[in-house]
Design a protein that fits this description.
141 residues; rod-shaped
């Protein structure tokens, strides 16, 4: 029994490895298949499992439509590119105007600080001189 199995296994290996042998075997069996109704039924049943039905085609068409709806076209990308460019330009313009406003406020603050320092010096220098004079007078007298 084991020798029969080993011969059958060898035959299967050989058939799997060589297409010419598979073709020759099919040609040998074909007349028998054509005559035998049961074999034809088995073959047709196995082939029919691989054939697409109208429902399969409809499902595939629906799936393709859903994919198409999700796809991004070149026109969509171009529109998006233009919108991003417009948004970038808008943000750039807004930031530029805000920066200009901040620069003007800082310039005004610098002017005010300069004036404050000058006033501070103008009022405090005479006081400091007076204090120094008083201290010197106290030391020498």
């Amino acid at each position: 029994m084991s020798s029969v199995l080993s011969i059958a296994e060898k035959l299967l290996e050989e058939l799997r490895a060589r297409e010419d042998l598979r073709r020759a075997l099919a040609e040998e069996l074909l007349p028998e298949i054509v005559r035998n109704r049961r074999l034809r039924t088995i073959i047709l049943a196995s082939i029919s499992r691989e054939v697409a039905t109208k429902e399969d085609i409809r499902e595939l068409r629906d799936y393709a439509k859903r994919l198409e709806e999700k796809m991004v076209t070149k026109e969509d990308l171009e529109k998006l590119r233009l919108e991003v460019r417009d948004l970038r330009d808008y943000i750039h313009t807004r930031l530029e105007s805000r920066i200009d406003g901040l620069e003007q406020r800082v310039a005004r603050l610098e002017g005010m600080m300069s004036l404050f320092i000058k006033l501070f010096i103008a009022f405090n220098v005479p006081l400091l001189i007076a204090v120094i004079g008083i201290l010197l007078k106290m030391i020498w007298t």
